[in-house]
Amino acid sequence: MKATFGAGCFWGVEMSFRRLEGVTDAAVGYAGGHTENPTYREVCSHSTGHAEVVEVDYDPARIRYEELLDAFFAMHDPTQVDRQGPDIGDQYRSVIFFHTPEQQTAAERAKAELEASGRFPRPVATRIEPAPTFWRAEEYHQRYIEKRGGAGGCAVR
């Protein structure tokens, strides 16, 4: 199964999802914009509308989608709009791209429960949208932090 999430700088998000038992693969890329096959430079120019995202492949017999949602909400501040930590721009927005109606329902429920919990003093800004085309990022971005021995500079928790 596939799940797609944007939670700020995609390097740290990818690393965080790869650590979860039941995640079989993860790739960084771009989604949610209007430019076909965008480059990193284009996405960073704020002219494409794309978010930095991670497309997660997971085995639902080993990890439930709800557990991916819990990890997603724990790894970033979902109340920030178009930023995470020092990273500012629309490509760093908090977004869940759902692939099935069941994922949509689960994502909406998880967001509502988080909102009702009072855990954050501000409203949860995470957007929940149908999964658009996933454009795989350039190869040097794949497993970026892993390739650099843990140095990556991303603002993930």
Give the gist of this structure:
The chain has helices at residues 10-18, 40-44, 65-74, 101-117, 144-147; strands at 2-7, 23-31, 51-58, 83-84, 87-88, 94-98, 127-130, 135-136.
Summarize the structure in words.
The chain is of the alpha+beta class and 157 residues long. It has a single domain (2-147), classed as Peptide methionine sulphoxide reductase MsrA (Peptide Methionine Sulfoxide Reductase, Chain A), CATH 3.30.1060.10. It is 29% helix and 24% strand. It is built from five helices and eight strands, in the order βαβαβαβββαββα. The protein has a six-stranded mixed β-sheet, covered by helices on one side. Strands 4-5 form a two-stranded antiparallel sheet. α3 (65-74) crosses α4. The longest helix has 17 residues, at 101-117. The protein is globular, with a radius of gyration of 14 Å. 40% of the residues are buried. The mean pLDDT is 94.
Topology:
Blueprint: E1 2-7, H1 10-18, E2 23-31, H2 40-44, E3 51-58, H3 65-74, E4 83-84, E5 87-88, E6 94-98, H4 101-117, E7 127-130, E8 135-136, H5 144-147
Parallel strand pairs: 6-7
Antiparallel strand pairs: 1-3, 1-6, 2-3, 2-8, 4-5
